[in-house]
Structure formats: C-alpha cells, structure tokens
Amino acid sequence: MNLEKLSQETKLILDDILERSAIQKGQIFVLGLSSSEVAGGVIGKASSRDIGQVIVKTILDELTKRGIYLAVQGCEHLNRALVVERELALQKDLEIVNVLPSLHAGGSGQLAAFDYMADPVEVEFITAHTGLDIGDTAIGMHIKHVQVPLRPVQRELGGAHVTALTTRPKLIGGARARYQTDDIRKF
C-alpha cells in the first residue's frame, strides 16, 4: 500500500468533513478505523500498524492545528473505549479506564493515538460533535444527537468504506416555531 497516497487521501476526506460539519475549536472529533478494511481485508483480521499510524497522524496533525480534540475509538474487545488526551478527559470529567490497546484489542488506530498524542488515556464514553468512520466501525454511539450523515468527497480509503457523521441542534417547538439558520442543512 502506498502510505503517502493514503495520507493525502485521508487529508482530502478530513478537510471535506471539517468544512461541511461546522465543528469548532474545542469540540471533539471521533475516529473509527479498521486498518484491516483499508488494507482490503476483513475488519479485525488484517490489522496494520503502519496504516493506523499514517491515518491517525494525518488526522491528529490537522485537528491540532484547528484546536479540535481527537478521540480514537477502539474495537469491541475494548468495549469501544476511546483514546483521548488526558487534558480533555480531565476538562470534560470523563471516566478514565485502565487498559492499554494492542493491535488486536483496541486496534492500530488506538496504538497510533498512544504513539502520537502528548498524554493519551482511555475513556469509557464520549459525546463528540463530528466523526469519521473508516471501515464501518460504528461510531454513532459516540456522536451527540441529532446526527446528520455526511457523504465524504471520497467514499473509500484503500479498501474501506468511509462514512461520516456530524450534528445539529434539535428542532423543538412544533409547527409554530421558527428556527435559526442551520449551517449543515442550510435551511
């Protein structure tokens, strides 16, 4: 696999999602990643540390420039716990759990987060504003309501299907209510 091309395509997809999601400085972006799927394999069966490192480093570098926090979702072996910076966990009073990911329990994305974050910790739950799902890893449980699907400019990364979610405020009040302009749906 061409890792330079993988980095470029990851950045292309990320830039598209960040622009259309209206995510702001200080908010949380969740990443679900199956490096097995990116490599053309079956989720959880062909994990690649190199692929995880390229994707996570590319995303982390871009989010850090914008002041957005990254949360990297683990696989079902870690109950979908997430790696975040300790600073975020303390700021949001998130429950830190004691586990270290491995290639086949947590996955390549979590290992890369431990490699590249300043002070990474695992937390049990998070409520993010926007997220990118590379390889159908089911990130919806970590995105706040109301979720809005985004179709990325590129819908595959390597062999992995790519989807994204963002959020918008709930519309309440019924038929007589009026609403502010929605940056996502543009109504």
UniProtKB/TrEMBL annotation:
Gene3D superfamilies: Hypothetical protein TT1679. InterPro entries: Antibiotic_NAT-like, DUF436. Belongs to the UPF0340 family. NCBIfam families: TIGR01440 family protein. This is UPF0340 protein J2S23_001480.
